[in-house]
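COMPLEX REQUEST
Ligand: iron/sulfur cluster
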Amino acid sequence: MSHVAWLSKEVKSGKILCEACSQACVLEEGEYGICGVRKVEDGELKLLVYGLAAAVNVDPVEKKPMFHFLPNSKVFSFGTVGCNFSCKFCQNHDISQYPKEHGHNITGEELSPSRAVELALEYDCDSIAYTYNEPIVFFEYTYDTAKLAHEKGLKNIYVTSGYETHKAIDLLEPYIDGMNIDIKSFSNEFYKEICGARLKPVLEAVRYAHSKGIWIEITTLLIQGKNDSDEEIREIAKFIASIDKSIPWHLSAFHPMYKMLDTPRTPESTLLRAYKIAQEEGLKYIYMGNVDNEKHESTYCPKCSNLVIKRSGRIGQYVDNKLEENGTCPYCSNILEGIWS
Ligand code: SF4
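STATUS: Structure written out below.
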């Protein structure tokens, strides 16, 4: 479904600059952006996937992963085809790379913003997540949905690679309550070679979104020999700590996927090593993901060290939240950072 992609402007050459993400595509009539879902038609930038969802699910919010955001609640989650990155390890490459790998074809099931909100309420969800592919490429669809969702008392989550422009973040800030942002590596080379992107805009987006008061959690997929050295892990931890030590950091294990089938699965020992480095850098909330490790998936009060949210089983299967109102620790009355109601 085609819709004006209004987060764009005409530049001097008469071409159109897309202002959604830091790929900053400048396009002329008939050209597609790198994401494959924004195209200039009749002199305007159009979003080709407006109201067309390629994946829809009701998930536990822990699966996003968001651990300090309405724990134990359900989130209505959807995404479209298309992506501004081309990660060789993408676990959703069937939808994210679909337009690029299918001759600019677009696919999806009709799901209007108002229907998405209706379904979220019908399924007893507390929030809507824009996820599975990169949400900034379908910005106008997320914006309209998030606005309606807020009117109905639902919260909104972006699960993103962090390529939003400052202008996009300014527009999202009133409606997007939480973001899980990937910091995929601390090497520009990694971003260039493996993801078709750059590191700097991601770091800037994390810092800027946090400064706007959006609740941020970070995820890093650790890949053997690519981004798992002590030095690189420490650089990411230091960067997060330089913004706010209470930003939760999810350390996730890679498993062979898409164009990286020859790279081995990340051992749990790597995650434990990273966990220790993050602790040394003073991060208060560190979590392991894609491994079965209840101890390192649970939340402990940073003041009294008591277990306050126990997570066990499959992700989001059993969540025992002992926190009291506003994230208050029942043992020492410390208030933990997060969105708790
Ligand atoms: S959202 Fe798409 S068209 Fe816009 S700048 Fe990013 S890759 Fe280019």
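REMARKS: The chain is about 25% helix and 25% strand. Residues 18, 20-21, 23-25, 33-35, 38, 84, 136-137 surround iron/sulfur cluster (CB under 6 Å).
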